Amino acid sequence: MRNVSSPVNSLKIKQKEINNYLKKFKLPDCMHGGVPKRNNVLNALCHIDNLFFLTIDLKNFFGNITNTQVHQTLISRGLRWEEARIITRLTTLKGSLPQGAPTSTTLANLAFAPTTKLLEDFCKERDIIFTAFVDDLTFSSSRNFKHLVDQIIAILQNNGFFVNLKKIHYKKGCCEITGVFIKKGKLSLPKSILERVEKVEIRRYVHSVEKQYKTHLKKG
């Protein structure tokens, strides 16, 4: 269950304007969720050639990002103290980011970006691919890296993020990544999606997946 706090309409309009402004700030290439021109399929494609997979879910991602973190993040991006304070007051609720606000995903990404950079550097040195789709993190490699899982979790915890211990999965050969299956260098839809969507939607989704997959192969 997620506690969603939708803002009143007048505030929501203002938050959408703020969100359009915030989206101009660059995020690391490893971040895909809530980022223009990136999506769950492209996130999964980053891992398509690998054999070993680690998926981690961050616990209460929005709620654990405080108004102080939001304020400091905005200042680190070049905003003046008072500008950052105004935006923080308009986008936080009871001291943290609320789920349901148009700005929350973008602000959470900005606050999480320095940690993703640490994880990205850690992974590059060890031939591990890392991507983040909001609070869903995926790590993969052609080699077994299970012995590094505790170090990865430590980086997250040392930077103030909490791991959902029930949603840490280490797999070999096949893995569901942000709604798409990766297996033996191919993409496929999970059974859960096939059962709940109409055939027309499935065809559209499959067409989208295939198109992005072919683009990925050309770039490769």
Word description of this protein:
By secondary structure, the protein is an alpha+beta fold. The chain contains eight helices and seven strands, in the order ααβαααββαββββαα. It has helices spanning about 10-20, 40-45, 65-75, 80-90, 105-125, 150-160, 190-195, 200-220, and strands at about 50-60, 130-135, 135-140, 165-170, 175, 180-185, 185-190. The chain has a four-stranded antiparallel β-sheet, covered by helices on one side. Strands 5-6-7 form a three-stranded antiparallel β-sheet. A hairpin with a 2-residue loop joins strand 6 and strand 7. Helix 3 (about 65-75) packs across helix 4 (about 80-90) and helix 3 crosses helix 5. The longest helix has 21 residues, at about 105-125. The mean pLDDT is about 90.
- Looking at the structure, what is the overall shape? globular
Are there runs of 5+ residues with pLDDT below 50, and where?
none
Number of helices: 8
Major sheet description: 4 strands, antiparallel
E-strand count: 7
**What share of the residues lie within helices?**
40-55%
Strand residues, percent: 15-25%
Q: How big is the Rg?
A: 18 Å
Structural class: alpha+beta
Please tell me the overall pLDDT. 90
N-C termini distance: 39 Å
Query: Can you list the strand order of the major beta sheet?
Result: 2-3-1-4
Report the order of strands and helices. HHEHHHEEHEEEEHH
